[in-house]
């Protein structure tokens, strides 16, 4: 793509347009030429060419090819005309209606024609060159016109269905049973009535008619959805109603920004603040009556740094609800009761905005009128199906209303016949009528008729003259665009304000204040956009993305989602994937999971379309990991799509020749899912990849990779009951970790590596007999949490911190810590930690499941963990439930569940609690008088705990063996392994043993 001086993107030659082609042929020319003298034939053909060229030129077309027996003419080639399809029909009809006189007195020669409308790529004539060998345009349209001409009878003109649809006021007769060469099946075509007289059409912005609809909207007792095709007058109807309302606010969507979460509300918030460059002080000054959390939620919505304070306090689902509530409160405060809220173009609302709209509807009740518009009634109805909403679908204007509209809009001076032509061609669509009337008044000598709205709007853009190219570049940015960004994109930039003022005077764009501009109508934006060739579009989108990444990065509204949209359209697949991933993570932090999923799936689409290689694989790993995390929040750990996402990460890692440090977060995320889901083999493989990558990394991110590898291994060693190996990993983590350098890893990894590892160390030390270190380790846990100051991790620290207290015999303290963790988890919307904490409450306090209702609650809680796929610890919890069932007398159910718990634990190879699970199994066997089985199970528990270095479990198993009559040497051996100063509750029981 050509680039102007200074790096500005200049529009290249060539463009894309809808044109109408006519192909006129002399019937029986070959026979005529065989009989005629060559010189006479040439003179005769020159007369034919001259005559047809005059007719075509008079109608506004251009003859592009002179053939031996016909001509090809194009309408709309150099300048769009909304009447170009009808002009082409009239020109062809005039040519074909009058046969050519014969050559040198021979019989007259009949003609026939074919007409087709379609999109073409136009190659302009080079400067200073009158003719060129290459064709002016490329597309199927001329071939189709030729095929229709060949199928026409002498004296007939056939048109394709697309042309016929654009000329509703021209008399056309369907031609049945037509088959064209190169086109499958029966082809839909129409024959032109050559003697028919053409008509015209037009519209204005003045609102008339629709009295019943207006009365309905003014007496609403519930929200109303107004639907209808583009241009039918939805916005005009709504505006006519809110004129009399005591107050109102309009929220309008932008098609190009539909991938940005909350974009209609973001746009409104900035407009209320009176500046595109918002800051937190201005936000608080604009909305002083909001509670602080609502102000912070708005700050997060507007990408202000102060909003990050909420990210640390709320889990993602709760954060999303917090944002929706804050926006809804702000919206409702802006319009007092009795006012009207308007939400335009729901078909372009992003999912997060739709969810916020639902919240507005919930909180509003019937205090304010609410009007919604959409051109897609099905999708809008689906979203609002559980709401009590009235649906009002607009029909075309009646002819009498259209005539009144024309008179009020400035068309009163037109004669009745001209008004009738305009009204008929508009088909009752107000926007069509408005634009046609403007054109007719601007060109009083023109009797041309529009073919389509597309042609009409393209003509409006073409009429902007020197501003046309700038409008096309503005269309790349979006319906709404920044003057600063347009100046950076356009060449020459100095002309931008002048050209925009010119376009504004023509009603194409409007100034929104400060740096903001907007196309007056979305269809004008689309008409400007679609004129450019694909290569032009791709080059300009790439340039916009670069500007948003560089010199215009500070523009309000800039976001990874917006950059991704531009890079996607520029076919910059891998950079687009990177931005989509960033957009997905941002949406996930705000709790907008549906939007996050959409962004991440777009990232995967970009990865698959881009060039294969390590870069694409790495981005796909990141996208799959983030997608898996999002889907876990939406569907649970066990959902098939979650597993598929993390399996994809594993498969990519298997096929990689090397994993750079930037892959550490993806591998760590997949590892976390595998270990929590109880999938030891997959977790081991991912841990191996982390270890290998960490050893191979030599760059500045080596420490990050090493910390990730050590933390994953630390976690795996704990859950596997490999406690000495876990302690060695913890020493390596302590040697590397520095809170100032490594705490920021939480953004990519979802947790602080030291906090995660240290919280696993505490229960492991107690299990290994080092209970005397518990207070110091717990103090370290809490101090580190205070230093991090990340509230989202508090439930993790509190709930998990209760476990070592319980194992150390300090059950009351453990229960108090659990209760605090549950309260905070509930406040933050962290359901996972609430469920885990409830399980531990049943374990630590057996009275919680002392009756049938308590056991049922324990069973439901375990089932919830299984449903979401968080399988780690399930065998241990099931064994405690079995103990509770046995205490309640349901020994049969207890026996079945106990066997299942042992079996599940053996199969998982995640054995941190397996020795204790076996010991509890032996207690049930003893109660069932199965002494030999109990003895065997206890020896298994003792051997496993001895192998693990789990001295606490080992002492407990030894004491139970003594109760069964075994010698004390096993207890002696276990006690000898205790470290100096060890203090475990079992020591007192051991002292009483023989």
Protein topology:
Blueprint: E1 15-26, H1 29-35, H2 38-58, E2 62-67, E3 70-75, H3 84-97, E4 111-122, E5 137-138, H4 141-151, E6 157-160, H5 161-165, E7 172-175, E8 189-192, H6 211-218, E9 224-227, H7 234-242, E10 248-252, H8 263-273, H9 280-286, H10 292-301, H11 308-313, H12 316-334, E11 340-344, H13 351-364, E12 369-374, H14 377-383, E13 390-393, H15 399-411, H16 416-426, H17 430-442, H18 453-462, H19 468-477, E14 480-482, H20 483-489, H21 496-505, E15 509-513, E16 516-519, H22 522-529, H23 534-549, H24 560-569, H25 573-589, H26 593-609, H27 614-635, H28 640-655, H29 664-676, H30 680-696, H31 702-720, H32 723-736, H33 739-742, H34 746-749, H35 753-767, H36 774-788, H37 794-807, H38 811-828, H39 831-844, H40 852-868, H41 874-887, H42 891-908, H43 914-927, H44 931-948, H45 951-963, H46 969-976, H47 986-992
Parallel strand pairs: 4-6, 9-12, 9-13, 10-11, 11-12
Antiparallel strand pairs: 1-3, 1-4, 2-3, 4-5, 6-8, 7-8, 14-16, 15-16
Helix pairs in contact: 2-3, 6-7, 10-12, 12-13, 15-16, 15-17, 16-17, 17-18, 18-22, 19-22, 23-24, 24-25, 25-26, 25-27, 26-27, 27-28, 27-29, 28-29, 29-30, 29-31, 30-31, 31-32, 31-35, 32-35, 35-36, 35-37, 36-37, 37-38, 37-39, 38-39, 39-40, 40-41, 41-42, 41-43, 42-43, 43-44, 43-45, 44-45, 45-46
Largest sheet: 8 strands, mixed
- How far apart, in Å, are the first and last alpha carbons? 92 Å
SS field, number of helical segments: 47
**Helix residue percentage:** 55-70%
| Rg computed from alpha carbons, rounded to a whole number of angstroms | 38 Å
Taken as a percent bin, the fraction of beta residues is 5-15%
Let me know the number of strands: 16
Identify the overall geometry: elongated
Structural class category? alpha/beta
Mean pLDDT: 85
Low-pLDDT segments, ≥5 res: 1-10, 197-205, 446-452
């Amino acid at each position: 793509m050509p680039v102007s001086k200074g790096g500005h993107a200049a529009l290249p030659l060539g463009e894309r347009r809808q044109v109408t082609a006519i192909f006129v042929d002399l019937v029986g020319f070959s026979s005529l030429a065989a009989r005629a003298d060559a010189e006479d034939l040439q003179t005769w053909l020159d007369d034919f060419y001259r005559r047809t060229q005059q007719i075509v030129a008079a109608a506004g077309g251009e003859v592009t090819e002179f053939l031996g027996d016909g001509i090809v003419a194009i309408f709309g080639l150099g300048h769009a005309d909304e009447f170009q399809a009808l002009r082409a029909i009239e020109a062809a009809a005039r040519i074909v209606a009058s046969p050519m006189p014969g050559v040198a007195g021979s019989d007259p020669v009949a003609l026939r024609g074919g007409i087709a409308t379609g999109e073409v790529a136009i190659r302009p004539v080079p400067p200073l060159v009158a003719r060129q060998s290459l064709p002016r345009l490329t597309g199927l349209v001329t071939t189709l016109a030729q095929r229709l001409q060949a199928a026409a009878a002498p004296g007939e003109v056939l048109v394709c269905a697309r042309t016929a649809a654009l000329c509703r006021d021209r008399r056309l007769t369907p031609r049945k049973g037509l088959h064209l060469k190169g086109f499958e099946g029966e082809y839909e075509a129409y024959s032109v009535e050559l003697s028919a007289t053409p008509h015209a059409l037009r519209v204005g912005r003045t609102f008339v008619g629709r009295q019943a609809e207006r009365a309905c909207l003014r007496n609403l007792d519930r929200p109303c959805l107004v639907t209808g095709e583009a241009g039918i007058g939805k916005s005009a109807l709504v505006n006519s109603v809110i004129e009399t309302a005591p107050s109102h606010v309009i929220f309008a969507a932008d098609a190009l920004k539909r991938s940005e979460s909350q974009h209609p509300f973001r746009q409104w918030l900035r407009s209320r603040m009176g500046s595109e460059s918002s800051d937190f002080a201005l936000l608080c000054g604009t909305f002083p009556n909001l509670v602080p959390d609502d102000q912070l939620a708005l700050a997060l919505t507007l990408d202000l740094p102060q909003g990050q304070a909420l990210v640390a306090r709320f889990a993602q689902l709760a954060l999303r609800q917090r944002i929706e509530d804050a926006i809804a409160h702000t919206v409702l405060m802006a319009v007092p009761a009795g006012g009207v809220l308007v939400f335009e173009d729901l078909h372009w609302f992003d999912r997060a905005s739709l969810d916020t709209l639902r919240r507005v509807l919930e909180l509003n009740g019937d205090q304010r009128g609410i009007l919604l518009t959409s051109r897609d009634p099905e999708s809008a109805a689906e979203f609002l199906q559980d709401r009590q909403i009235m649906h009002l679908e607009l029909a075309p204007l009646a002819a009498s209303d259209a005539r009144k509209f024309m008179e009020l809009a400035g068309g009163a001076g037109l004669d009745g016949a001209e008004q009738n032509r305009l009204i008929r061609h508009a088909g009752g669509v107000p926007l069509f009528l408005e634009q046609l009337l403007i054109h007719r008044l601007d060109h009083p000598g023109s009797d041309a008729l529009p073919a389509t709205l597309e042609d009409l709007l393209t003509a409006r853009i073409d009429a902007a003259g020197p501003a046309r190219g700038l409008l096309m570049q503005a269309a790349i940015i979006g319906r709404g665009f920044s003057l600063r960004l347009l100046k950076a994109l356009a060449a020459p930039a100095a002309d931008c304000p002048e050209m925009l003022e010119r376009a504004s005077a023509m009603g194409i764009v409007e100034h929104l204040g400060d740096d903001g501009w907007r196309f007056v109508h979305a269809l004008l934006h689309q008409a400007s956009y679609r004129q450019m060739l694909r290569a032009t579009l791709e080059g300009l989108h790439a340039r916009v993305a670069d500007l948003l990444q560089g010199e215009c990065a500070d523009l309000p509204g800039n976001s990874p989602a917006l950059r991704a949209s531009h890079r996607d359209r520029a076919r910059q697949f891998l950079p687009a994937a990177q931005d989509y991933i960033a957009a997905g993570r941002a949406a996930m932090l705000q709790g907008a999971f549906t939007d996050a999923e959409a962004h991440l799936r777009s990232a995967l689409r970009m990865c698959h379309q881009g060039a294969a290689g390590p870069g694409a694989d790495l981005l796909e790993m990141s996208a799959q990991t983030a997608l898996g995390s999002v889907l876990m929040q939406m569907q649970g750990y066990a959902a098939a799509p979650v597993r598929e996402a993390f399996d994809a990460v594993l498969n990519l890692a298997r096929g990689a020749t090397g994993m750079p440090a930037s892959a550490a977060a993806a591998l760590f995320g997949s590892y976390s899912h595998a270990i929590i889901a109880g999938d030891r083999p997959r977790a081991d493989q991912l841990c191996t990849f982390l270890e290998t990558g960490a050893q191979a990394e030599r760059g500045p991110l080596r420490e990050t990779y090493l910390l990730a590898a050590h933390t994953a291994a630390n976690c795996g060693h704990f859950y596997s009951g490999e406690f000495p190996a876990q302690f060695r990993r913890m020493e390596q983590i302590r040697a590397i970790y520095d809170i100032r350098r490594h705490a920021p890893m939480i953004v990519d990894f979802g947790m602080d590596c030291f906090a995660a590892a240290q919280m696993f160390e505490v229960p492991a030390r107690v299990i290994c007999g080092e209970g005397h270190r518990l207070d110091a380790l717990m103090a370290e846990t809490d101090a580190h949490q205070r230093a991090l100051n990340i509230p989202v991790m508090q439930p993790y620290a509190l709930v998990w911190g209760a476990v070592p207290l319980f194992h150390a015999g300090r059950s009351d303290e453990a229960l108090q810590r659990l209760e605090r963790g549950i309260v905070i988890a509930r406040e933050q919307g962290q359901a996972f930690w609430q469920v885990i904490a409830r399980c531990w409450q049943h374990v630590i306090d057996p009275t919680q499941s002392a009756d049938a209702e308590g056991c049922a609650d324990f069973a439901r809680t375990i089932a919830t963990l299984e449903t979401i796929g968080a399988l780690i610890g399930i065998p241990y919890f099931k064994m405690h439930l079995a103990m509770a069932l046995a205490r309640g007398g349901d020994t049969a159910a207890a026996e079945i569940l106990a066997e299942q718990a042992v079996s599940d634990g053996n199969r998982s190879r995640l054995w941190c609690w397996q020795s204790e699970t076996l010991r509890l199994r032996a207690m049930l066997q003893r109660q069932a008088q199965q002494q030999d089985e109990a003895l065997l199970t206890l020896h298994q528990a003792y051997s496993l705990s001895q192998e693990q270095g789990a001295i606490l479990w080992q002492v407990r198993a030894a004491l139970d063996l003594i109760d069964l009559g075994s010698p004390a040497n096993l207890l002696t051996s276990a006690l000898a392994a205790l470290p100096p100063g060890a203090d475990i509750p079992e020591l007192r029981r051991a002292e009483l043993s023989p």
